[in-house]
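#struct-help
A.M.: can someone run this one for me? Single chain, 462 residues.
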Amino acid sequence: MKKRILILLVSIIILGSCNPDEFLDVIPTGTLIPQTVEDFDKLLEDYNTSYPTMTNMSYMDPDTYLPGKNYLDLWRNRWKRQYEWAENQYTAEEDDRDWINRYTKIHVYNLVINDVDGAPLGKRTELDRQRVEGEAYAQRALDLFLLVNEYAPHISASTKDEPGIPMPLEIDLAAQLPRSTVGEVYEQILSDLDKAEILLVDAPIYNEDANFRPGKAAMKALHALVNLYAGNFEAAKQFSNEALDLYDFVYDFTTIDHRTPGDPWGGLDMFDFNFSTDAKSVLWNRYHRYTFRDPAQLYHPDLLALFDQTNDQRFYLFSSNETFYGVDVSPDFCYARRNAETQAGITVPNLILVNAEAKIRTGDGPGAVAALNKLLVKRINNFTPLVHVDNTTTLRWVKEERRKELMATGNNLIDLKRYHAYGESIPTFTRIIEGQTFTLEPGSSKYVVPISPKIKFFNPNL
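D.P.: on it. Structure tokens below:
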């Protein structure tokens, strides 16, 4: 037990950087060895929100725009390779933190699932034991969902049997697991979620004090996302309706301004507002990125053209055509704030857009537009409600609002990948960098983040 937990808590980084055999005989010193339900609960409390999620997708997103000097200013070469949609993004010496951080947490959740049932209570109760186990299942489901959408083809009838990601469900860090299929991963996600909802029957609707721990609304929201991605639109509509019935808080951007009007770099006048753990519109926190100033990230002109730059508060509050140091840039910065944090987790605005998309894809055009209006009235000054005319137009509105609302989070890359899996038309994207042309074609393997050489070296079964 001690050997296993030491490896887990002290040397878990081995998943991407070291040979596991090096750690098998280390004697623990000064390390908490979880033995009681209380200890396992504290493991789940010790969720480090400073670990970014889905960062590999930031520069792959076609809506990311880094012309000229902005590209040259990228101070990590892998960021340049990602912006070029390179098939090999990491060198043999580099660690992929997205991979390492997510699998680190999955092994923590596996430890809790495997050992909490037989642990003494400590200062907890039997209800706490049930809650802790349920949270571990739910957290594993979310992290598997994030991983399979970053490192695997999008699920469809033609890809469900293709290699997805390794899926450790037991505590054995020396195991060199092959990649489970995309379909198997989705089945496990839904199985984990079902178990979690049974165990967390008494969970709060929303975990306000620690929103990296799931409440009932968050689990319903993940059910909605998983089903939307899998093309099960009726189920996505049902679960998103249920989640929004439980919790639907959205900040009203039309009531927010800059602390110094016209200066986005100084922050917002609502001091409790950000995109991280204390933001009440974040249902299930997975921090994506902290700053967009270094390196700078600009709106792609095609994305910029979607905004009503006069009335859309998302553009007014978060954009700037001047850097923090007074250097002009064009087109504008996205998230021009010193402390701008974006989410790879589940937010209420994302959930509303899932609900709108599920409705239009099941033939409920008026319901889809009503969901869009519910969000946009809190985003756009002088807003005139949308009116459903036809399904094609309403679906286009939903897709455009996802691009604007979820910009610079990696979600757009996943959306494009899944639209293609649904059989819908997406463009071929082109970037010209220092005279060389790079393309991202529909259905290309370049939509999938490649597993790094270092990880493959330690697990040749990948």
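A.M.: thanks! The beta strands are 64-65, 282-284, 287-289, 298-299, 320-322, 328-333, 342-343, 346-347, 429-433, 436-440.
D.P.: also worth noting: Residues 260-343 form one domain.
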